[in-house]
Amino acid sequence: MADHLPSGLLEACVVVGASGDKLKDSLQQGNSTTDLLILDPEVLQVHVPPFVTKENADESGVPRTFSRVQCRRSFIKKKERLVVAPSGPGGAGSSEGATVTEDVSVPKDIDLMALPQLCFPGGLQVTNEPKEERFHFLVFTDVFGNQTHGVVVQLLNVFNGHWSSTRTTKLYTAFAICVISKHPYYNALKDCLSCLLVQLRTCRLSEERVKEFAAKLSLVPIPPPGQLHVVFNLRPLMIILPSREDKEHPAVDLDLHLPFLCFRSKQILQIITGILMEQRVVFFSADWARLTLVAECFMFYIHPLHWQHPYVPILSAQMLDFVMAPTAFLMGCHLNHFEEVAAETDDLILINIDDGTVSSSCSETVDLPDVPFISAECFTKRRKGLQLQYDLEVCHQGAGTDVNEMRMLRRQWQQNLNWEIQKVTLELIVNMFRDVSGHLNYEHRVFNSEEFLKTRELADLPFYRKVLETHIFHSFLKDRLNRKMDAFTLLFYVSVRMKAMTDNPRRPTMQEMARKYSSNPEIRLNKRLGMSLPNLGEERHLNLLRQTSLKKTIIPESGEYTLRKYGSKRVLWLSFKIPPKPVKIFKLPECPPPMVHHHVQNYYGELIILLGKAISCVPPEDSTLLARYFYLRGFMNTLCSKRLDALSDFQNLYKTDIEIFPTDLVKALVDSLQKDEFSQVDRRPELKRLIFKVKTDNEMVLVQADDHVKKFQLPKTHMLQEDFVKRIQESGIVKDVATIHRLFEALTVGQQKQIDPEVFRVFYTFWKETEVEAQDVHLPAEVMEHLDNNECVYKLSCSVKTNQGVGKIAMTQKRLFLLTDGRPGFIEITKFRDIKEVKISFAPFLLLRIPSLKIKCSLRKEVFEANLKSACDLWNLMVREMWAGRTMADDHKDPQYMQQALTNVLLMDAVVGCLQTQKAIFAASKLAYFDRVKHEVPVMVPKTTLETLKHKINPSLDLPAPQTVHVLLYTPGQLSYSEADGDGNPKLWCALSGGRVVVFDAASWSMQQNCVQVGSSQLNCMLGLDQDQVWIGSQDSIIYIIDTCLCMSCSVFCGGRVCWSWRSTYSCSADGTVILWDLSTLKVKKQFQLTCDRLMSIQLFNGTLWCCKDCIVELRKNGTPHRKMTLPEDLRSMSTEFSSLILFLERGQLWTSCSDSDELCLWHCKDLTKPFLRVRLQNCTGVNCMIKVKNQIWVGCSGPSPDQCRMSGKIYIVDTESHSVEKELMAHTDSVQALCSAEGRYVLSGSACQDGKIAIWKVE
Hints:
Layout: E1 12-17, H1 20-28, E2 37-39, E3 42-47, H2 54-60, E4 74-82, E5 99-107, H3 115-119, E6 124-127, E7 134-141, E8 147-159, E9 171-181, H4 186-200, H5 207-218, E10 228-233, E11 238-241, H6 258-262, H7 265-276, E12 280-285, H8 288-301, E13 311-312, E14 329-334, H9 338-344, E15 348-352, E16 357-360, H10 373-384, H11 390-394, H12 403-433, E17 440-441, E18 446-447, H13 449-454, H14 461-467, H15 471-481, H16 487-495, H17 510-516, E19 558-566, E20 569-577, E21 584-587, H18 597-617, H19 623-639, H20 643-654, H21 663-671, H22 675-681, H23 685-699, E22 710-711, H24 721-731, H25 737-747, H26 757-773, H27 781-784, E23 793-802, E24 805-812, E25 815-820, E26 826-831, E27 835-845, E28 848-857, E29 864-867, H28 872-892, H29 896-915, H30 920-925, H31 929-936, H32 943-948, E30 949-953, E31 967-971, E32 987-991, E33 996-1001, E34 1006-1013, E35 1019-1025, E36 1029-1034, E37 1038-1043, E38 1048-1053, E39 1059-1060, E40 1066-1068, E41 1073-1078, E42 1083-1089, E43 1097-1101, E44 1104-1108, E45 1112-1115, E46 1121-1125, H33 1129-1132, E47 1138-1144, ...
Parallel strand pairs: 10-21, 12-14, 12-15, 13-14, 18-22
Antiparallel strand pairs: 1-3, 1-9, 2-6, 4-5, 6-9, 7-8, 8-9, 10-11, 15-16, 17-18, 19-20, 23-24, 23-29, 24-25, 25-26, 27-28, 28-29, 30-57, 31-32, 32-33, 33-34, 35-36, 36-37, 37-38, 39-40, 40-41, 41-42, 43-44, 44-45, 45-46, 47-48, 48-49, 49-50, 51-52, 52-53, 53-54, 55-56, 56-57
Helix pairs in contact: 10-12, 12-16, 18-19, 19-20, 21-23, 24-25, 25-29, 26-29, 28-29, 28-31
């Protein structure tokens, strides 16, 4: 268990200096008082936790405090020490007395061999002049990249030696105290050492004094990630430990503006460029402290990217050969070695902190590509807006008299400035790499670097070509493909409001084209326009849909977007005003004498009491702060060996915030429980569930996560269909598997069923070249005013002769129009929904027959005719497919049909351009899916369905294949998933397979979140509570609670399949467990067990619970059965069960349905022996779901077979008064799996994976 305990503030405290014997020998060899000796430093003292020994614990009779180093691997250093206390600094004293050896347990990641040199990087000198104490900072990095941080103070004390009678002046010898921590608390540890110096000025250095100082620091807990800071009193200063922003972000406890005081914007950008390009970078300064602090600042500047090469901010004089390393590195040297390092090594980036210059070892200039222009311009402007001088900030204030109050004011100013600087640098990184996500294929983990580079400006290409080859960028890609919710992702989602990702990058709309070319009156048309998927319906403003992190996320409330012209493009300049997060400070009790066990135990006990008081004062809705207090108290209880109390705190933490849940520590606690503790667990149901989950998780086989990233490459061998599907998906052309199968058939017409790599290359090149040409599309203003704002031109013909004049035929997702030659004009040919007929006719010309395309429109008598010549067959196919897609989209009220038709058309064009053979048109016809369906197996939608159906949406839009809609939940307008939405619109939550939840804006039915990941198991039910929470039950035995305002999730355990009632918060699981929850504390108020094989659901009616399983049982609130209802006799022989129930209290009726029956059974509530009426549902094989809406019962059913060519999912609307079927609705091609009501105005239905759509129905 010790290995899993979070480390405290102190990892080790080491005293370094010259031993008394060596100092004596060196002085005796000196010839004059002016000789300044340089000695080899060595470790004099090592102090590591635990400081309360086992003997102390045994004598006190109290169980020993648990130490995190007891089971940790370490090496033993034999240290000689004098029995007599040292009389001089560093342990020098009388030579009398026997020497003994002492075993010192040192943490495995602290290298005592190199530490003395780093504590005295300039050497240990004996001087004849006193000097002030000096601080500097260290960073140790192990082979795994784990970092340990140190703060060193060097002191000079008078050496009272009497070995040379010739010395009449005072001599001063140095020693250093180094405090080492796992966390980068530079300012806090510096303040701690400053407090120790106050004591050392009045008394000599002693081992016990340093040990007591180290022991006090070891008692200080580290705050968990979040906004809870810890403060403790070390006298005379109050020391603050800021928390990390999140688990991935280190604590910020240094002044991030230091590089801004040393360098201009140009130099800062050059340094960042050198780091991102993994150059060999060396910092120089005459002040050792600046080296580490400035280097650490730049590590924060590139966050969330991480430096992954050797990182040694301070090199001692003996370590200068490190700069000869051939690999990338970041190191720091004293300014005295600048010329030496520059002369000995080539290709170094030399950074002089003191002069603010950046040069190379080869020349005075740096041969590095410039940062992308727009990113650099934004950074420079934002940097100018920073207030970097504290004196200017407080010049209006009076003089302070309380040092701690003055320090607090200074710290608040620094904290706000750090926050602003982090925003500026994060915006820089986001502006640099924002477009990377558009070239990622998440399913196959592919990055198309070539296409990404093609979208960059010419002047920016050198920068991106180098950065894209680095380890830093490779790890960045891994995080993007893993959908990591870090600072980059959060700002990216806020900055880039875009439509839901479809198969290809989106074409510019008329509105965007007007904005793009508003200052350019010239007309410029390309022959080829881009081939990408359309924007359908109204213009939407969507977040790029994200996987929800199980933690609190603050979304900026306001921001600044600026379009700047750069080269031939107008580029979005991002600048956000993000308010700093509110901070809560928890003060630790006064530190006791740290070397006495019972005092330490009393300290922990007092700390637990204070945390309990803090918890009781936190309102239940402030779950974020509550979670942090539970974390700290659980940690303290663990240190006190109060395992059950610790598990109880971690159980409450799990129910409040999963993100900071210490999984490994909880597992270790469970494994360490004694027999008497297990007997107590049986009396505490919540702990029992927690332990059950921990043990279940331990038994699960861990699957190694796929962490690879590959660049897209064109295939070099022939491809069968399966490999072709993968390659097309990787390329980003199309995701839908069925469409790719049709494309495979088209490209293999008349030949063996495999794709030649050359054919693939030509097809891919044709597609991408057409896409690139689309970026320069320009239509005259006179033409754009006739088109809708969200309309795009997808195909443009050559100049042809028509009966309306000479011009180019243009195709958008809505219409065909003629762009006349000469002075460009607009002549509408037809909208696709108005087409009555499309055919090819032949006009004789001399001995030839010239083909022409004729299009008849229902709104015009005159038939449009165009002499398209060789392109006539292709245009005929494309117009027919668009016509068929438009017809089906209107008939089914499903805009995705039109979107798919556009995809088919664009693929046809690419196939014809690729093959260039006589069979090209025949091959392209394989892609005319909707035209073929229209003529071969037309699906007639019944009139009743058309009148009731309002719209259809696709929750699997971003997936390769449709998924089953398992659960639907509508939440009213006040319940918003993110404060960034701002509109307060209602939401539709849709649970798909694998724990995936998709969220729609129920006002516009546009997708807002396409991947809220809730576990990995199937989700069974969802419920909106208290206007700001959504409870989601999963088959993994967990209820996930999503705070819709804070994007925060927590969990509670239920031990099986989860469902619940609407009003009182009851939950049930498949094993028959029923739990009543306290909403404010998420604690179990009541629990009882039912005897059943499979409990399906639970509902609350008139004070009693109705449980649906193999039978229906009415329960009293105490859990005792009241009445039981079994299946009707004729259904008992069938392998069926109740699927749903509805209770009508006002009518005294109970309606039930069965999964394999085509009947609804109506029962009298007072007589449950047999149903008094049955309602037969025609052509139904089973009922899956049933809801009551007004005076109607909506029933979702399975059809006879999952046949794509005819409806197999039906919805029956049954009148509750006449008990008759009013309507039969058929809009799904697979069984209806979920129903929900939207405030009685609409009913939403979701279907199984053969269809995977959601239909929106009007309620009359």
